[in-house]
Specification:
Layout lengths: L10 E7 L4 H12 L4 E8 L5 H8 L4 E3 L8 H13 L5 E4 L8 H4 L6 E5 L11 H10 L5 E8 L10 E8 L6 H24 L5
Parallel strand pairs: 1-2, 1-4, 2-3, 4-5
Antiparallel strand pairs: 5-6, 6-7
Amino acid sequence: MNRIIHPLHFARLVVLISGQGSNLQAVLDACSSGLLSAEVAAVFSNNPDAYGLERAKQAGVPAISFPKPGAASRREYDALLAERVREFEPDWILLLGWMRILTSNFLDRFLGRVINLHPALPGAFPGTNAIERAFQAYQRGEITQTGIMLHLVQDENVDCGPVLAQQTIPILPQDTLESLEARIHEAEHLMVVAVMKQLLHRNPS
């Protein structure tokens, strides 16, 4: 990791989302309460209808709808996105339900500072619909548990990179997909805040 935030530094976070933004809300609340020595400098979404943009507006945070232009390639879009994100001078970029694979045109601009949340354990169920796929695997008798992880994003591989934290979530006999999703999201909220608190208070090397 090429950047360590000093405890006295009030870190600037940029959050990328595509949907409801419940993990964004956990971060916003933690910043507002002082639990995190940070502020959310901006929230970006590739989905103009993402409710997370409304959460950002309600918190007084710049909420930026940034859909991919139809004529732009993935790499062209990521270069444009990187330029806009850079304007907010982020210390960390959090991918909290961001449903696009970022290319090197974005990642190379923020090496060691992009963190992704994924609702599965390392190496398990990469990509979209991870909770649903885990629940289906449980119903087939293939697994008894799933989990969540936070990891650094260093390249274009999907949902892999140095793991910052992981947690196993058992799948219970009485679980429905909805109840499993609810427990996973609750664990995600706690993990995101706890890991960011550790990173923001780590002593400089």
